[in-house]
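R.M. (postdoc): so does anyone remember the format we settled on? I'll just put the C-alpha cells first.
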C-alpha cells in the first residue's frame, strides 16, 4: 500500500509539473513581445561602458532584475487577490515613466550636444571616480527601467493563470521570472561580447576565421547602435501601448487599426505616437516642477 501511495504521489507531482510547464510556455509566448523590448532596452544600457566592465555591469543589472521580480511576483499576486482594480492604474504609471525616460534620453541627445563637447574639451578624459559614478548611474537606470518592463511581463503572465489555483500562479510566475531574467541578460551578454569574439577569430590562423572575425568586428558597433535606437523606440512603444490600452477611446482605435490590413504596424505607430506625446508632456511637467 505504501508503495502504491508513493507511486500515486509521484504521478500527481509529475502531472502538476507538466501543467506548470504548459502554463509557463503559454505565459512565455504572451510575454515574448515585451521580452524583445526588454532585450533592446538592456543592451542599450550597456552602450558606452568600458569593455572590461561590460559583463560586471550586466551581472549587476541582472541581480537587480531578480530583486525586482522577487518584489513584483508576490505584490502582483496580492494585488490580483485583493485589489485587482489597481493593476491597470499601476501599469499606466509605469508606462508613463517609460515614456518620460525615453523623452529625457532624446532631449539629452539633441539638446545637450554643445554641453557635452564643451565638457570634453574642458575636462579631458574621465577620471576613475567619474567612470565609476557613470557606471553606477547606468546600473541604477537599467534596474529602474527593468522594474517597469518586469512588472508588465509579470502582469501579462498573471493574466494567463488568473483562473488557476494559487499554487499554480506562484509556480508559473516564478518560472517566468527566472526564465526571462536568464534569457534577457544571457543574450545581452552575448551581444556585447561580439567584438571580443571578433578579435579572437581575427587573430587566429585561417582565412575563414579571420574573415568571420573582421565581419563581427564591423557588425558589433552597428548592432549596438541599432539596439540603442530600437531600445529608445521601445520605451515609447511599450509605454505608449500601456497608456493606450488604459484609455478606452485610444484602445478601441488601436483595436480597429490592428484588425485592418497592415494593422499591426498602424497600431504600433499609434502606440509610439501616444508614447511620444505622453513623454513630452511628462518631461515638460517635470521641467516646470523643477523650475517652480
Amino acid at each position: 500500500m505504501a508503495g502504491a501511495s508513493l507511486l500515486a504521489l509521484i504521478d500527481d507531482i509529475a502531472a502538476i509539473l507538466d501543467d506548470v510547464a504548459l502554463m509557463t510556455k503559454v505565459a512565455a509566448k504572451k510575454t515574448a513581445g515585451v521580452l524583445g523590448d526588454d532585450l533592446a532596452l538592456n543592451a542599450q544600457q550597456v552602450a558606452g561602458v568600458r569593455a572590461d566592465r561590460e559583463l560586471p555591469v550586466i551581472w549587476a543589472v541582472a541581480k537587480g532584475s531578480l530583486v525586482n521580480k522577487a518584489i513584483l511576483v508576490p505584490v502582483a499576486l496580492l494585488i490580483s487577490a485583493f485589489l485587482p482594480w489597481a493593476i491597470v492604474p499601476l501599469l499606466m504609471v509605469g508606462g508613463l515613466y517609460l515614456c518620460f525616460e525615453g523623452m529625457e534620453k532624446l532631449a539629452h541627445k539633441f539638446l545637450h550636444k554643445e554641453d557635452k563637447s564643451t565638457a570634453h574639451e574642458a575636462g579631458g578624459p574621465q577620471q576613475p571616480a567619474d567612470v565609476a559614478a557613470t557606471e553606477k548611474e547606468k546600473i541604477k537606470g537599467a534596474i529602474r527601467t527593468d522594474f517597469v518592463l518586469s512588472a508588465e511581463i509579470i502582469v501579462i503572465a498573471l493574466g494567463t493563470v488568473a483562473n488557476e489555483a494559487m499554487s499554480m500562479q506562484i509556480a508559473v510566475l516564478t518560472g517566468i521570472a527566472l526564465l526571462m531574467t536568464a534569457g534577457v541578460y544571457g543574450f545581452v551578454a552575448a551581444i556585447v561580447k561580439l567584438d571580443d569574439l571578433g578579435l579572437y577569430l581575427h587573430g587566429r590562423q585561417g582565412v575563414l576565421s579571420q574573415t568571420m572575425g573582421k565581419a563581427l568586428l564591423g557588425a558589433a558597433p552597428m548592432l549596438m547602435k541599432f539596439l540603442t535606437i530600437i531600445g529608445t523606440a521601445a520605451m515609447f512603444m511599450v509605454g505608449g501601448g500601456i497608456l493606450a490600452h488604459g484609455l478606452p477611446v485610444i484602445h478601441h482605435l488601436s483595436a480597429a487599426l490592428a484588425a485592418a490590413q497592415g494593422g499591426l504596424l498602424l497600431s504600433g505607430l499609434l502606440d509610439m505616437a501616444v508614447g511620444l506625446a505622453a513623454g513630452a508632456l511628462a518631461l515638460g511637467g517635470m521641467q516646470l516642477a523643477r523650475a517652480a
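R.M.: ...and that's the designed sequence above, right after the C-alpha cells. Also worth knowing: The two ends are 77 Å apart (CA to CA). The chain has one domain: 34-291.
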